[in-house]
Specification:
With about 475 residues, the chain is mainly β. About 5% of the residues lie in helices and about 60% in strands. Strand 19 and strand 20 form a beta hairpin. The radius of gyration is 26 Å and the shape is globular.
């Protein structure tokens, strides 16, 4: 069996290396054809499979725009359909039928959108016996493209009507952060507040307090949690949670605490987990996690320790192995989709993960009692061509974009330019998201583009000055 996994892994790595070689050759050919219209060339996932048991393989497939089209495991699968703008318009969910020995359609959800590409409605139907029946509907309302109200309905077969059942209302601050979320049940046409979450932020937009309150009725608090967050140089250092219950003296009590330390690259090095002891009225360290990283900032190992018989002993660990010939920014990153229908095993790493080993020690302190599960990842890649008008590759300028990937802003420096320059940010459907005209000073252009409001994914920065055009990929995460 180990030989089988090794063969799969080797085959995957060889395929990836061949793909890279082909892409490098094609890039060289593209750069030589300066006066031709050539499409922007990206590399994208075609499929991902991973398993610890060949009989229980998980399969994920993507289209040329990075959309997840198939998600399949042993017992269920999803099939997704998208429109020409890469918006999910239908999801079919299947369950494995042991009697008939095939996947049987169970749920179907249709998605519709407004003119701003915001999800406006989804309707889920369920398959019973031999027919589809309407089941659940959600509608969404926006102000300035921010979701403000979400309403839910269920379909009543007796009356053949949609019954309004609940709603969620969202409030935002000036930075578009959610400050309050209220959930209501609808009883006899009257809104009954069920629970709400209130968030507070500091001047750096870091969440400092999250307060959750659940009500027996619209006025009586029955249960709640509140979590305070502490930062140092915008790095989370402590998370302290208190809880409230009418069944526990109706007072707020400390319950849980986490503390974080970081390495020189601002990555979490240790995570300490405390539980509150009511008898001693103090927090007691329950377990801790130690994280190790490679030179590319991928976490290669996490070890968890517990205090067993007054001795700290490891009881869980996770080890990752990577293919370092691959970097995330070289790949068209699949985009998120509604209802958590996305899966990208590489999105949380900077290189391609090829193997993950998870270990469990059921008798801490005895190294012989480790049990291991191994996930082997196999990838197939494909070259994706994104057509841009007048996309002529030109190497006569020095273009730098940083940081890349980025989540807030991208700084652009461009030298060797003499004419007025148009700088455009284009999504993978070829639509221009931002366009800026700049006049160079001393043959150089410097500017910053705010990308904090854009959706995560791959974008193309297109620089055009006269007949000269250069393109560069930007990852927004």
């Amino acid at each position: 069996m180990k030989k089988f996994y090794f063969f799969i892994l080797c085959f995957g790595l060889i395929s990836i290396q061949n793909t890279f070689s082909q892409i490098n050759n094609e890039n060289k050919e593209t750069k030589s054809s300066i006066n031709q219209k050539t499409p922007m060339q990206l590399m994208g996932l075609d499929s991902v499979t991973y398993s610890s048991d060949p009989s229980q393989t998980n399969i994920f497939q993507y289209d040329n725009r990075g959309n997840l089209t198939l998600r399949q495991s042993t017992f269920h699968k999803d099939e997704n359909t998208y429109n020409q703008d890469s918006l999910l318009i239908r999801n079919l969910f299947y369950l494995w039928d042991y009697d008939s020995n095939y996947f049987r359609a169970h749920e179907s959800t249709e998605f519709t959108y407004d003119n701003n590409r915001n999800l406006s409605q989804d309707i889920m139907s369920i398959f019973l016996d031999t027919a589809w029946f309407l089941n659940v509907k959600n509608t969404y309302e926006y102000t300035n493209n921010l979701l403000t109200t979400e309403r839910s309905y269920f379909f009543d077969l007796d009356s053949n009507n949609w019954i309004y059942s609940s709603k969620t209302v969202y409030t935002y601050n000036l930075n578009n952060d959610i400050t309050e979320q209220r959930f209501y049940y609808i009883e006899n046409g009257i809104d009954e507040l069920s629970n709400k979450t209130t968030n507070t932020y500091d001047a750096n937009n870091n969440l400092t307090l999250s307060l959750y309150e659940s009500y027996q009725d619209s006025l009586t608090l029955s249960y709640g949690t509140r979590t305070n967050y502490t930062y140092n140089n915008n790095l989370l250092t402590m998370m302290l949670t208190e809880s409230y219950s009418v069944y526990d003296s109706s007072i707020w009590r400390p319950s849980y605490k986490q503390e974080y330390t970081y390495n020189a690259n601002s990555q979490v090095a240790t995570r300490l987990n405390y539980m509150y002891n009511n008898s001693s009225s103090q927090f007691v360290l329950h377990n801790l996690d130690s994280l190790t990283y490679d030179n590319n900032n991928n976490y290669t190992q996490i070890k968890s320790y517990i205090n067993y018989n007054q001795v700290w002993s490891s009881n869980q660990k996770k080890t990752n192995t990577f293919n370092y010939s691959y970097a995330k920014q070289d790949l068209l990153i699949p985009k998120p989709a509604p209802r958590s229908l996305s899966y990208v095993p590489i999105s949380e790493y900077n290189n391609m993960i090829t193997e993950q080993i998870q270990g469990y020690n059921y008798t801490p302190g005895m190294e012989t009692n480790w049990v291991y599960d191994t996930n082997v990842y196999h990838y197939t890649l494909k070259t994706v061509y994104l057509s841009l008008s007048d996309n002529i590759t030109f190497d006569g300028t020095n273009l730098r974009v940083y940081p890349n990937p980025t989540s807030k802003e991208a700084k652009i420096t461009l030298s060797g330019i003499e004419q007025n320059t148009q700088i455009s940010l284009i999504d993978i459907q070829g639509r221009t998201i931002k366009s800026i005209n700049k006049q160079p000073i001393d043959n150089k252009i410097e500017l910053t583009i705010d990308v904090s409001t854009l959706k995560k994914g791959t974008y193309i920065l297109n620089i055009r000055s006269g007949r000269l055009t250069q393109s560069k990929k930007i990852i927004i995460n």
